Amino acid sequence: MESAPTTDRTFDAYAPLLDDETRREIRDGATAVSDLRVAHVNTTASGGGVAEMLGPLVALSNDLGVDTDWHLMTAPDAFYEVTKAIHNGLQGDGDPLTETMGATYRETVAENAAAFRGDYDVVVLHDPQTLGMADALHERFPETVFVWRCHIDLTDPSPAYLDFFDEDLAAVDHVVVSRDAYATSLPDVGTTVVHPAIDPLTAKNRPLDELTGDDAAAAALDRYPVDPGRPLLLQVSRFDPWKDPLGVVDAYRQVRESVPGVQLAFVGGMPDDDPEGLEVYEAVEAETIDDPDVHLLTNLPDAGVNVMQRVADVVLQKSLREGFALTVSEALWKETPVVGTDVGGIPLQVEDGENGYLVGPEDIDATADRCRRLLEDDALAERLGEQGRETVRRKFLIPRLLADYCDLFERVTD
Question: What are the Trehalose synthase N-terminal domain coordinates in residue numbering (predicted)?
């Protein structure tokens, strides 16, 4: 167990994005829980949406007087191979959970639970990697409120994987999910829906003309192999079978039949806690190796992701299952229209025909059709893009996430 690096961020920096009433409400909410000590626990400080949210969330919490720490589990590669299988199993797929897998998981979480220090009022355990600590931590700190924040899609979990966490779920006091539907399979425990959010002040989301130094250099489009003079389809996500990158390739090939010169780019990270990523990357590479207009870009700096999302004509999120997909909010914030699947948290962000398009998760024809509409109608793409940015401004920025957590902490400690 180790401490995560802190982000340099103040609440006042977000003032131009918030009206006076919203700023007052957030400050009042933080004041109401300023006597609490809070800890967040996850597995990585970078490489995924959870880490991207926790950095500014912890910084803003402390800036507004809520004493908040952020701890990282330490774990071997074998643990992450197991937790990837658990992730898949809780989303309804994956290999059977073996005794060896269970033992690997339990050994690592026990070591981290034993190493956990701190006298906290509330501890938020993020995702299945940390959930296994709940029972041991509850026994050591009986006065602490333990919250499990589940960021994945629990609509139809494999029963064996859900049963594996019976005692851990019994030890948590509250569960936070991204949609009501994710809580229906859980045992009788209090749940709250909290939507994830993006940080508009990071190098990934700031206007390009505000970037300086290394970030500005990373945002130079000539560093990347795409041609800005030709139509570009883009998917930003981990190389993960749940993101259906091969389905994206199929849709692109249909679009190419009627839109000359169209390009496709994948921008994907390779997080330390996702060992499956390389296998999926290699499958996509093998499928597209003979097409010079398909680009696979890995581990771009945040400013590089930023410029790619802005230069794209359409951003896809063709997930088969999806906890939320912060990449959708990122694209909408940049006024880039999105074609996403009607699964998980995507329809919480995309209203079909208003700020983007929703399609069935297996519907390649519809995916290609909506991409063509946007590529062939600039006025439509502009209208949907403008509405998308306003949607994110109102609903999916990090100050709102802070307000939701403060409200949650007040309720669970009352």
Answer: 40-183
Q: Is residue 103 part of a domain?
A: yes
Cα distances from 227 to residues 72, 207, 223, 235, 315, in angstroms, run: 40, 21, 11, 16, 16
Residues 258 and 299 in one domain: yes
For residue 281, what is the domain's CATH number?
A: 3.40.50.2000
> Distance from CA of residue 124 to its chain's centroid?
17
Percent of the chain with pLDDT over 90: 84
pLDDT the model gives residue 95:
79
Distance between CA atoms of 188 and 122, rounded to whole angstroms? 20
**Average pLDDT rounded to a whole number, residues 164-185:** 93
Q: Which residues, at least 6 apart from 159, have a Cβ–Cβ distance to it below 8 Å?
A: none
> pLDDT of 177-187, one tens digit each?
999 999 988 88
Predicted structure pTM score: 0.89
Instruction: State how far the Cα of 122 lies from the Cα of 220, in Å rounded to an integer.
Output: 43
Q: Is residue 61 part of a domain?
A: yes
- Pair (138, 229) in one structural domain: no
Residues linked to residue 39 through DSSP beta bridges, in sequence order:
69, 123
Distance CA 326, CA 328 (A): 5
Tokens representing 390 are: 């306003």
Per-residue model confidence (pLDDT) at position 189: 86
**Is it the case that residue 252 has pLDDT exceeding 90?**
yes
Instruction: Give the span between the Cα atoms of 347 and 116, in whole angstroms.
Output: 37
Domain that holds residue 159: 2-197+397-412
In this structure, the answer to whether residues 165 and 288 fall within a common structural domain is: no
Q: How far is CA 398 from the centre of its chain?
A: 13
Which contiguous run of DSSP H or E holds residue 268?
Answer: strand 263-268
**pLDDT at residue number 262:** 98
Give the number of other CB atoms < 10 A from CB of residue 255: 20
Residues 236 and 143 occupy one common structural domain:
no
Amino acid at 142: P
Domain count, the chain: 2
